[in-house]
Design a protein that fits this description.
It is built from 8 helices and 10 strands. Helix 2 runs parallel beside helix 3. Helix content is 31%, strand content 21%. It has helices spanning 72-75, 81-89, 107-119, 158-161, 164-173, 185-198, 212-228, 237-242; strands at residues 19-26, 32-33, 43-49, 77-80, 95-99, 123-128, 143-147, 176-182, 203-207, 232-233. Strand 5 (95-99), helix 3 (107-119) and strand 6 form a beta-alpha-beta unit. By secondary structure, it is α/β, with parallel strands linked by helices. The chain has a single domain, classed as TIM Barrel (Alpha-Beta Barrel), CATH 3.20.20. Strands 1, 2, 3, 4, 5, 6, 7, 8, 9 and 10 form a 10-stranded mixed β-sheet that branches. It starts with 18 loop residues before the first strand and ends in a 6-residue tail after the last helix. It is globular, with a radius of gyration of 17 Å.
Length: 248
């Protein structure tokens, strides 16, 4: 596979043959919203890619990587850039969220996808765990990164989940917000340490939980301390609205 040319326009014939390992696409046939972060509440299309480089115990999309519980042959399929662009272009929704798993594992193939989506008037948000630096061809107008570094309390070793060079690359891009999942005030203290050490801003905090009861309770635990730090706070709208139903 050759290295894609810099993003300058729509996908070429060669680009259209690039194929991505996709878990699911949703938001076109049954409308939904971006549920988290700076665009919470915005109508959105979702392209969820399969595979991840972390194995977080509290991950809520294990069907993208945990093959001890899920069958990759049933949970993922290869789809071409041309197919994905056509799917998104059919919808009037402007925002396309590319998530995972960890989408930047496949970022060489994402370059032509971004080219195609922006050419048909879409804006793009990547949901990424922040362990892989973005390719320069992805740091372009119309693209933002919601970077969600995972704390040890999320069930992963920070020696794997916190990659300073990658975080610095996202900071330097000027196109990133840093969204942390938290359950306790102690988590907020750790977020503050990371934000100070790596100059992460803006910081968004999201309560952990996959039910409205847990999210509400955790919100109340965290709200005063988040406000005191002058950080942004986001809920998980898709959980509150759709009970964390897959594909919503």
């Amino acid at each position: 596979m050759t290295t894609p040319e810099p993003v300058t326009g729509g996908p070429t014939a060669g680009d259209a043959e690039f194929r991505l390992i996709v878990a699911e696409c949703f938001g076109a046939e049954v409308p939904t919203f971006q549920g988290e972060g700076p665009s919470c509440g915005h109508p959105a299309l979702f392209i969820r890619l399969s595979r991840c480089n972390l194995t977080c115990a509290k991950c809520d999309t294990k069907y993208t990587w945990d093959w001890s519980q899920f069958d990759p042959r049933k949970e993922s399929a290869k789809r071409s850039v041309a197919d994905l662009v056509a799917w998104a272009a059919f919808s009037p929704v402007e925002l396309v969220v590319i998530t995972g798993g960890e989408p930047l594992i496949q970022q060489a193939r994402l370059v032509p996808l971004v080219r195609g989506l922006t050419a048909v008037g879409k804006r793009i948000e990547f949901e990424t765990n922040g362990t892989i630096s973005p390719a320069p061809e992805l740091v372009v107008d119309g693209v933002r990164f919601n970077v969600s570094p995972k704390l040890a309390s999320f069930g992963v070793k920070e020696t794997k989940s916190i990659v300073p060079a990658a975080l610095e690359a996202f900071v330097a891009s000027g196109r990133a917000a840093f969204k942390f999942v938290a359950s306790t005030v102690a988590d907020l203290d750790r977020i503050a340490e990371l934000a100070d050490a790596h100059r992460l801003a803006p910081v968004w905090v999201m309560p952990e939980g996959t039910t409205h009861e847990v999210i509400t309770a955790t919100t109340r635990v965290l709200a005063d301390a988040v406000a005191a730090r002058h950080w942004h706070f986001t809920t998980r709208l898709h959980v509150l609205a759709f009970a964390d139903a897959r594909g919503r």
